[in-house]
Specification:
569 residues; Rossmann fold; 4 domains; alpha/beta
Length: 569
Amino acid sequence: MKNYFIKDEALKSVDQDSFGHVDIANNIKNMIEYTDAPFNVAIIGKWGMGKSSLINMLKKVLEQDQTDVYMIQEINAWKYQKEEFGRAFLKQLLQGIEGRKFNSKEEFEHILQKYLNQDVKIENDQSHVKAPEQIKSGWHRWKKTIRGILGISGFIFLLVFIYKCIALNLFLGHFPELLRASFICFCKNVATILIVPIMVWYGKIYMDKLAEKKNVQVGLNFPLETRDDYENYLKSVLREKKYANKKIITIIDDLDRLDSSKIVEALDALKVFMDLDKCIFIVPFDDAILKKALEEKRVSNLTSTESEIDSDLILDKLFQYKVYIPELVKINIKKYAVELFQKNCQDFITEYMNGNMEEACRIVQNIVIHKHVSTPRQVKKLINNFINNMIIACKREKKQTVQKGFATELDSIRMIAKISVLQADFNEFYDTLFLNMNAMEEIVEVYRGENDSPSEEVGRFFENIDKRYELKPKYQSLINYLIHTEKYNKVPSLASYIYMAQDKISALTGDKKQQEFMETMLSKNMQSAQKMLENTPVFAEKICQYLDLEDDADDVLTVCNMRSIMDYY
């Protein structure tokens, strides 16, 4: 495999540590070793500061020491963005603690139902042992039912007996014969009609009772819904002997990647599990993101009934220990970037930088890694973007779709590096270059007070205070970078580097004003073209370059007749 790009991934070993994070990992290990659980640790650092790398180092440090004492598991909160966090965390905790894998949602639900129904089963078993009053009451109901059935049957039999007396013209002197005939008639015509409905009726009552029992059982067989259920179930698991001398370490990663409402929901769910015996929770996050989420929405059960949210107070209640990843020294960042570039991009330097390691590293150090780069992740992003643009430029030069030297001359490579940084870290200004190709020089001139009438595209980076243009604070890093790299603006046409195309094509696909001028000329609108030339004289130079004319052509509009331009297409 060839080494072109730098993969943005967390460090996997202590040997890769460039910023001394292993010292922080060892300190957290001491907390875990010498502090009785339960407690929680917050690892606080900005985006890209290496929180995930620190977690990997911590796991390595713990795994090297007393693996029979620590049980380590990791839960990625970002994976459960669309799920209910209480259930998701419980599932992951159970899988980690019990060393099992739930193959389906149904299997997980079954485990929860089984636990919840233990109490129900006990109650059902006790319900079979009835009190004497219950037995007496039940027999009393059955006696009343039997008496009712016998009374109705006796009355109907008497009516049948009388009917037979009249029908057979037999009286009491023939009592045995009359009784036999009446009994046979009763059985044939009445008993079946009477008994069948009674049996159906009692059958229905019996089935209803069974259904009622089933309904009760179904109603109790629901998955765990309350926080108490979650907590009680985990406690029942942790009471097992095999966990008696264990410290269960759970790492909740990527919590700060969630949206605000899900962050609040996750913190609320975590509160349920964070006080469990033997459990230690370690949560890396950017505290600015969590505080913002907490201030937008209250977390239930985490604060008092105060109307205002104190995000610091909430985080203090959740985390007994806070470990901060310090900001990186700028000189260390540049050194780290160069070493990373040399180690991971050797094939790129050989194939696309003519093997000039020294110059390639100088470009990375002086242009690609600017003074406002503060995290390892930002370093990787900038270097990868520069490499990507250089490879594209080199391939297009070989195809002759850009001018010769576009990706090989030093000034050109420096401009590609500068454009790459604007793309990655100053995207708003990079987009402005498509509207105004002179924006790099113009914004610096306005900032220095050398231009008091900026174009609309550049003017929006400033505030007009008493006819003085003051740079908006959020663009200070941009202007610092443009001034620092001003000496590298030594290319004839910026459009070539924006579009990665030939200068002649760039003349047609330049900034927005330039495109409008070309469209005006092609439409033979001489009056508008003349006015645009007066307002923006640089168009004359661009058109001369496009038609290979002398730069001092007396009358551009006369020389550039519309038919010639159309033919040139």
